[in-house]
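Worked example 3. Consider a protein that binds iron/sulfur cluster.
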Amino acid sequence: MKYLDAFRDREVAVRLLERIGRLVTEASCPMTFMEVCGTHTMAIHQHGIRGLLPEGIRLISGPGCPVCVTPVGYVDHAVALARRGDVIIATFGDMVRVPGSSSSLHNEKARGADVRIVYSPLDAVALARKIPEKKVVFLGVGFETTTPTVAGAVLASQSAGLDNFLILCAHKTIPGPMAVLASDPELQVSGYICPAHVSAIIGPAAYQPLVDELNVPCVITGFEPLDMLQGIEMLAHQVIENRPRTENQYSRIVRADGNPRARAIMEQVFEPCDAIWRGIGEIPASGLRLRDEFRAFDAARQIAVDIEPPVEHPGCLCGEILKGKTTPRNCPLFGTTCTPEDPVGACMVSSEGTCAAEYKYGV
Ligand code: SF4
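Given these inputs, the predicted complex is written out as structure tokens:
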């Protein structure tokens, strides 16, 4: 803990909280800050940040968990692919237990489907090389942090001449829903705790339209307790000064230009498309699809399957939770019918889901 301890210093935290308290006193109205990163959601719960803040600052969780925002129709598509005898589904672990309309990959695996958890898209490429008689479909779910690695896997597969590695693409980009939610009068978002990992790729400039067009303060913030308190203090300053801007609290990781190399590989392989977000609906140009020259790697275009009509669980409030309009404890299924062992909705499955965070750390 030698290095992390510096970001968990109790005395510094107390001083930051005193400063935040003075800013709240100075402010003429309450402030609502939204985080749009599942790791922030977990960190806020784990470190009890919400409970430390003075009245007058409210933290709400937005659509920061990529597994959670992936619509039920995508899970149904993956299930339909898994049911074919000639497909291996390769995925990060969180997707396996996300409920679809009538099944999940976990259920299909129990019935004999070949569903494998991998730790990198390159593991899926290796699988395709090892088992050439099967099609290996990697579930491409994630924001700008994950997408470059998937683009790299597509290029690696192309270089190796593999014709049995494909992806089922549901990649998304985060600024689109931030703009949608910042424009929602019901939410009254005073500022964004901008995601740390994603910002390491897209850089601070990606948030400038939110500042210029919607006057929303943005602070890229790290994950440790002092990072989060400092990020909140910076946002409160911006609100009081009435001078929205993009600031970078996490400058030890996030560079002024982000990661141009990662963006270049992402842009080489993917292009923007409209995308459906669970709870929010369709947002123009907020998704990524494989460019035409990479269509041979696109499972949606290469493998025909019948997909059942999407049906959400009627009692699940994931959609409202992902918009920051309600909290897990307002869901009547929370902790009773819906638990991490037996999840009803995606927000309880994912290790970054708001319901999972509340279940694990909530008091
Ligand atoms: Fe959905 Fe379960 Fe969360 Fe309720 S507690 S919103 S059912 S994931």
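Take a moment to read the result before moving on. The first helix runs from residue 10 to 26. The domain at 72-173+258-302 is CATH 3.40.50.11740 (Rossmann fold).
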